[in-house]
Design a protein that fits this description.
It is a single chain. The protein is α/β, with parallel strands linked by helices and about 325 residues long. Helices cover about 50% and strands about 15% of the residues. It has 16 helices and 10 strands. The chain starts with a helix and ends with a strand. About 35% of the residues are buried.
Length: about 325
């Protein structure tokens, strides 16, 4: 019977799906199945699992479309399950591991974050999120992979939606391992790039940009964007940065950027926008809670970003949608 209670219970129990997928990622089941169909005893031997219990997990995963039982009883992967392999594009495997090892414990503390308005990460781990990722480099490596998958998708949508002027010097602030800048420099061969990030991330960015053949057109700088930002560039990118921070922290960051920007510079903010009035789809609103527990930051509406920009000496020139869930806020100095 479909009632309000049964629908709500389905929502409450949705984490069962997440946990089953995360268990498969932790065990590496799909990496074994990538070599071909296998019986449960072989899978258990390869993954260090208890055969009858692994069979139960596989049966649950089959109902989700991640694997299928062959007529001879062996298990085989599917297109969907193949995306959970360690080497599959998109970063789903790393996201599942990071969910299991980091995000779930933080979400478990959501109630306290709602009571206090404070991030869960500092309470649960004793450190803010980026400090924790530095302290736990194995989590930092997983985070890099998830961000690379996210930014690769968003970067392709960005260069299709927004025309970065030819010949521009483009500074990616907090640019991580350089995924977005790679898209921009590949799409705009006449542009030069600069990437600013903290030392532990910047070295990985240098390595990846070098591997992409872009080292001659892109400088990697070590630094904290709250303290100083390279001056004189044509375009400044803030991609998935402002949502990490509180309003006051965003104002501090944007004021630092404003000091660096000339009168003709552009500040391009790539973020997922909450709708101004109606609740909208669940995804952005739930991601807003994810930012709360993880960083203490938040997702915002276009109007809220405009207010932050106005407070810090910028005006919004345009809001450009992309083919993905994110938009480009084109801001100019006032």
């Amino acid at each position: 019977m479909d009632t309000a209670a049964t629908r709500l219970i389905g929502m409450v129990q949705a984490h069962w799906t997440t946990d089953a997928i995360c268990a498969a990622a932790e065990l590496g089941v799909m990496d074994v199945l990538a070599r071909g169909p296998a019986g449960v005893d072989e899978l258990a031997a390869e993954t260090g699992a208890h055969p009858p219990t692994l069979d139960r997990l596989l049966r649950a995963l089959a109902t989700l479309g991640l694997c299928a039982r062959e007529p001879d009883g062996r298990w085989a992967d599917t297109e969907l399950g193949g995306a959970l392999r360690r080497d599959a594009p998109g970063g789903a495997h790393a996201r599942a591991l990071l969910t299991s090892r980091l995000w779930r414990p933080l979400w478990d503390d959501l109630t306290e974050s709602v009571r206090t308005g404070e991030q869960a990460c500092r309470r649960v781990t004793g450190r803010p999120i980026f400090g924790h990722l530095t302290h736990r480099p194995e989590l930092g490596a997983l985070y890099d992979v998830t961000q690379r998958g996210l930014v690769d998708e968003a970067g392709a949508a960005f260069v299709d939606a927004y025309d970065v002027p030819d010949g521009s010097t483009v500074v990616d602030l907090g640019g991580g391992t350089g995924a977005l800048l790679r898209h921009v420099l590949t799409a705009r061969p006449s542009c030069r790039g600069m990437l600013l990030d903290l030392p532990d991330v910047a070295q990985r960015a240098h390595d990846e940009l070098t591997a992409a053949g872009l080292a001659s057109r892109c400088d990697v700088m070590l630094g904290d964007f709250f303290e100083a930002v390279p001056g004189g560039a044509d375009v400044y990118l803030l991609s998935f940065v402002l949502h990490d921070w509180t309003d006051d922290e965003c104002r501090a960051l944007l004021r630092t950027v404003r000091v660096a920007t000339g009168p003709d510079a552009r500040v391009l903010i790539l973020e997922q926008l909450l709708p101004d009035d109606a609740p909208g789809e669940p995804g952005p609103a739930l991601y807003d809670l994810h930012m709360l527990v993880g960083t203490g930051g938040r997702e915002r509406t276009a109007r809220e970003y405009a207010e932050l920009l106005d407070d810090t000496g910028f005006r919004v020139e345009a809001v450009v949608p992309t083919t993905g869930p994110r938009s480009v806020i084109d801001a100019r100095p006032r």
